[in-house]
Amino acid sequence: MTPLLSARDVTKRYGAHIGCAAVSFDLYPGEVLGIVGESGSGKSTLLNCLAGHLAPDGGEVVFDTRAEGPRDTLQMSEPERRMLGRTDWAFVHQHARDGLRMGVSAGGNVGERLMAVGARHYGDIRGKATDWLERVEIDATRVDDRPTTFSGGMQQRLQIARNLVTGPRLVFMDEPTGGLDVSVQARLLDLLRGLVRDMGLSAIIVTHDLAVVRLLADRLMVMKDGHVVETGLTDQVLDDPQHAYSQLLVSSVLQV
Amino acid sequence: MNEDAYNFAYLDEQTKRMIRRAILKGLAIPGYQVPFASREMPMPYGWGTGGVQVSAAVLTPEDRFKVIDQGADDTTNAVSIRSFFERTAKVETTTVTSEATVIQTRHRIPEEPLSEGQILVYQVPIPEPLRFLEPRESETRKMHELEEYGLMHVKLYEDISRHGHIATSYAYPVKVEDRYVMDPSPIPKFDNPKLGDSEAIQLFGAGREQRIYALPPHTEVVSLDFDDHPFEASKADHPCTLCGAENTYLDEVITDDAGGRMFVCSDTDYCEGRQAAGFTGAMTQMRSFSLAGEDSA
Fold this sequence. Notes:
The complex is a heterodimer. Chain A is of the alpha/beta class. Chain A is built from 10 helices and 10 strands. Chain A has a 6-stranded mixed β-sheet, sandwiched between helices. A 4-stranded antiparallel β-sheet of chain A has the order 2-1-4-5, with helices on one face. By secondary structure, chain B is α/β, with parallel strands linked by helices. Chain B is built from 8 helices and 12 strands. Chain B has helices spanning 13-28, 49-58, 76-88, 137-145, 150-163, 192-195, 268-276, 282-296, and strands spanning 34-35, 64-69, 92-93, 102-106, 119-123, 174-176, 180-182, 201-206, 211-215, 221-223, 250-254, 261-265. Chain B has a 7-stranded mixed β-sheet. A 3-stranded antiparallel β-sheet of chain B has the order 7-6-10. In chain B, a hairpin with a 6-residue loop joins strand 11 (250-254) and strand 12 (261-265). Chain B is globular and about 55 Å long. Classes of the chains: A alpha/beta, B alpha/beta.
C-alpha cells in the first residue's frame, strides 16, 4: 500500500535554532496521526512545513496525488501546491478567525473553496454549503449570518465545514480544540471522529492535549526540542511510554 | 510665470517616456496592472491624477481632447481638466465624442460607439478588484499571478445571498482575454459590454495607487457572473425625458420636494446630439406644446 503522505528528514531551522530536525514518517490512507509535545517543541513548525506554509530547509514531503501518484510537494511549482491546498488538502487552524473570512457569510465561507475550483452555479454552491452546515451541526437558517455572530465552537465547526467541502483526502489540524470549553470540545471531537470515519480521511493532528489524541489518533509522535523522541500506536505510547519525556508528558496530565 | 515654461502637456519628456513604457506594457498584457512612478500633479488625489498623467503621455499637439465627468462635459472635474490641457498643451478641445481623438473619462463610457484611432483614458481610484476582499497587496499580486480568482465570486455570492441578485452596480469585475480579472473603474455595469471588442484603445490610470492597465482594441472582456444568475447590464427603466432615448444610461434628477423627478441621459453630448437631430422626450414635447399655447393666446 502506498503511503498517502511520507515525510523524509524534514528539517527547518530558524537561524541557529532548530524548528524541527530530521522528521520522517509515513501516513497511510484513512490513518490519523497525532503529534504531541510541549510548547516550542516544533509541532506547529512541522505541520506548516508539511502543509506547504513554510519552506523546510531540507528533506522531502511526498504526497500521493490523484493524477500523478507520489510526488514531492516541495519540488512542485507554487500553483500546483496551492491547487493541492484547495482540493486534496485541508488546514484547520487553532483560531477559527485565521481560517475563516469574518466579513463573509457562513455560506460564502463554505462556498469559497468550491468557487476557487471553478463552481459557477449559485444554487449548487448554496445547496452544498447548507448541506455542510448541517453536517457540522450548524442550523441551516444561519447560512447567511456572518461568523462574527457565531460562538467559538460554531466558528470552529464552520471552519471544518469550509475545509471539508471539496472532499479533501488529507486534513492538517493545528490544535483544533484549543480555546474551547470542555463540553464544546467533546462535541467537536465527536464530530471530527465521525467525519474522519465517514469520509475515510487521513489527518495529522497537532495538539498538546493528550485526551484529543487518545480519542482521534491511531498513531502518535512525541516531539521535544524539534526532535521526534517516540512514535508508536496511540494507546501503546500513552499507556506504556518509553522515553523519559513521554513519561513526563503522560504523568503531567491532571486526573480529575 | 510664463506658460511656456511648462513642457508640452505639463509633464517633462522623461516622465512621459516612463508612462508610455508602462502603457505599452499594459497594452501587451491586457488587464495586467503595471506599476509606474506616479508624479505629484497640481490637483488632489481622487480628482483624476492617474488619468491626467496618462492623457499627458499620449497627447500630441494635433489631438482633439474631450473630458467626461459622470457622462457630462460641463461639471467641475471635466471643465478643470479640459482647461488644464488647453493651457499646458494648447490642444484643441471638443465636447463631441466622434470628433475627439483622446477622451479622458470618469465613471462613464460614451454612448456613441468609439472608432479606430480614438483613445479612451479612464480615471481609476482603486485598480485592484480584489482589494476589499483581500487587504494584502502581496497576496493579491500572487492571486493574479496564479489566476486564483475564486474570491471574486465570493463577493458576487454574498451579493446574491443578501439581495437576491448581483447588487454590484458599478466597478463590476471583468475577466480580460480569459486571464486577468480587472476593475473597469467605477463605470456603471451598464457600460461593461462596451469594454469588450471596442475599436478604440482603452487606458486606465490610477495616480495614487501608481498603476496603469490597458485594453487594446478588440479585446475580449467578460463580466463575471454565475450560471444561474447571469450578468445583466442594468439601467433605470425609463426613456430619457429630454431626448426620448430608450437605450442609454440615465441619471435620476430630483426636480422638487414633492417626489418629482426626471430621468435624463448621463451622456450630455449624446443627448444634445439627439435633441439637435429632432428627437424629443416627455419634457421637450411638453415645452413645445406650452409654447404653442402661449402663441395662440
